[in-house]
Each structure stands twice: as C-alpha cells, then as structure tokens.
Amino acid sequence: MSRPGRVGILISGRGSNMLALLDAMLRGQIRAEPAVVLSNRPGAAGLALAKERGVPTAVVDQREVKPRAAHEERIVERLREHHVDLVCLAGYMRLLTPRMIGAFPGRILNIHPSLLPAFPGLHAQRQALEHGVKVSGCTVHLVDEECDHGPIVAQTSVPVLANDTEESLSARILEQEHRIYPEAVALFFERGLRVEGRRVLAAPGS
To answer: How many other β-carbons are positioned within 10 Å of the β-carbon of residue 172?
Structure first.
C-alpha cells in the first residue's frame, strides 16, 4: 500500500499489549501507524494511555449498544471511519462474531497466553499449572470463528518453574507477548501473510 498501514486496536482493560504495539509503531519498528484504540468499556485504563501518546480513541459501550449484532456493527463502522488495515485484539474480552471477522478477512490478529492449541479460553496460565506442563508460552494467531483457534502466526515458549504461581507465570509470559506481538504485526505489513490450511506463511522477503 502506498500510504502507511493503519492499525486499529481493540481493548477492554489496561492495554498492556496495546502499549507494546503503540510504542513499536511510534518508534518505527512497525511500518504502520496507530489509527484508533477502541474499547467496549468506557472505563478501560488503556484509553487514557493511548490518549497520552496522541492516539485517537473511541468507545462503543456494550451495555448501551445492544443487541450484540448492533454493537459489532458500530465497531466495524468506527474502524472503517479510521481506514484501518489491520485489527489487533489486545485484551479484548468479547468473542467476535462472523460479521466482524467477515469485515476484515485475514486481517484480525489476537495474542493468547499459551502455546495454542493447548489451553484456549480464559485463565490459560492457570490451566497450564493445573495440567503440570513444563513449558508454556504465548501465541499470535489470525482470528476465526472459534475461540483462540485461528491459524498461528508466531509462538514462543516460556519454561514453567517448580515454584511458579499463576501470577509469576503470567508475568513471564506477558514479557514475551510484548515482544512477539509487535514482531507479528511488523511481519504483516512488511511481507504480508497468507493462509495455507492451518499454516500462516509470510511472502518471500524482497
């Protein structure tokens, strides 16, 4: 694309991964610019942090815009108003419907704190500890209509220590999330991503 890529980020809370993406874009690690940070919750702490960085923000309150189809339609409208090329979920705590996924086919990324397909859904770190695994990690994937299921773009592993708690494991995984999510977004804009079955391939480098 001739103009810089434009990224829309959806959040529901503090926006830790949102900050990692914003800072990577603002320092030029990603060849794109933050178009908008949008939340389904007006009190999301990440909105203020985005504003501090001069990034436009928007709220589509899920308590006020109902039913769910209308809420997602409004989100799609806001993203299109900001000419978004890629949508990144960063702690967005709602499953997307086919309407949203169809509006940005192959252009919605999510990050999840496990080595998918292991431990999808909520409390992935707790699930890892309860199952006694020795290695966990995080995954960036394209979003499809199933929870934490779409084709995998990037993964990295994190050892599970004998004395780990859910909090300590979560913190170490989060450090890696902040590293690989910007890398995956940079890859999207530098080389593009195409899906073959369950695999995501980057176009050959120039």
So the answer is: 17
Give the predicted TM-score (pTM) of the model.
Answer: 0.93
Boundaries of every domain in the chain: 1-105, 111-206
Kindly name the residue from 71, 112, 141, 178 that is annotated as catalytic.
Answer: 112
Annotation marks residue 112 as catalytic: yes
Write down the architecture of domain 111-206 according to CATH: 3-Layer(aba) Sandwich (3.40)
Question: Measured in Å, how far apart are the chain's first and last C-alpha atoms?
Answer: 15
Give the Cα separation of 132 and 115 in Å (integer): 14
Nearest Cα neighbor of 36 from 143, 157, 46 is 46
**Residues 146-157: what's their mean pLDDT?**
93
Residue-wise pLDDT tens digits, 100-110 = 999 999 999 99
The conformational region for residue 164 under phi > 0 = left, psi -120 to 50 = alpha, else beta, is beta
User: What CATH topology corresponds to 1-105?
Assistant: Rossmann fold (3.40.50)
In contact, 140 and 154? CB cutoff 8 Å: yes
Q: Are 6 and 82 in contact (CB under 8 A)?
A: yes
